[in-house]
Design brief:
Layout (H helix, E strand, L loop, with lengths): L1 H15 L6 H12 L5 H16 L6 E7 L7 H10 L8 E3 L8 E9 L5 E7 L3 H8 L4 H10 L5 E4 L2
Parallel strand pairs: 1-2
Antiparallel strand pairs: 1-3, 3-4, 4-5
């Protein structure tokens, strides 16, 4: 029953473009889609929501290009961004690059409004990697979500050309 409820919530959220409204909903959605819920997922959610707000865009109205680097074990942040923006590899609106992000970064996301072309570059410094990994140990997914969402933003944002 729990899995059916989670699946129904995911379908409702993605079909209607409504954002998850509670931390519990984000954790359930992230766990279902990603297969687990570490701190990289809420970091991506936070970046995706920030971009939508700054761009004045709706979900599905953006493209995302993501590159990983700096010893990050995976591009999991991109899954969080996809959850927040509904960008998708299958729709051609989410692209992971083969080239690594610049030295000293954990990853870089460029998020653009499909209609206007306006965008923002989010640079995640590699220096936050130890903190994110430490938060994964001994904490429950909901606590991980809150730790990331309530911490001061530790990424740089700049408009793209």
């Amino acid at each position: 029953m729990k899995h059916l409820l989670t699946l129904a919530m995911f379908v409702a959220i993605t079909a209607t473009g409504v954002r998850a409204e509670t931390p519990e909903a984000w954790v359930a959605l992230g766990t279902r889609v990603h297969g687990g819920f570490g701190t990289f997922i809420p970091l991506g959610i936070r970046i995706g929501e920030d971009a939508l707000t700054k761009l004045g865009a709706q979900r599905r109205d953006v493209t995302v290009t993501y590159s990983t680097g700096g010893g990050a074990p995976c591009p999991c942040v991109a899954d969080g961004i996809a959850l927040a923006t509904v960008a998708s590899v299958g729709q051609g609106t989410l692209r992971l690059t083969a080239e690594p992000s610049p030295e000293g970064t954990m990853g870089v996301a460029v998020i653009r409004d499909k209609k206007t072309g306006k965008g923002f570059r989010y640079t995640i410094p590699a220096a936050i990697l130890p903190k994110l990994l430490a938060w994964n140990k001994g904490t429950e997914p909901l606590d991980r979500f809150r730790l990331v969402m309530e911490a001061p933003p530790e990424f740089e944002v700049e408009p793209t050309d």
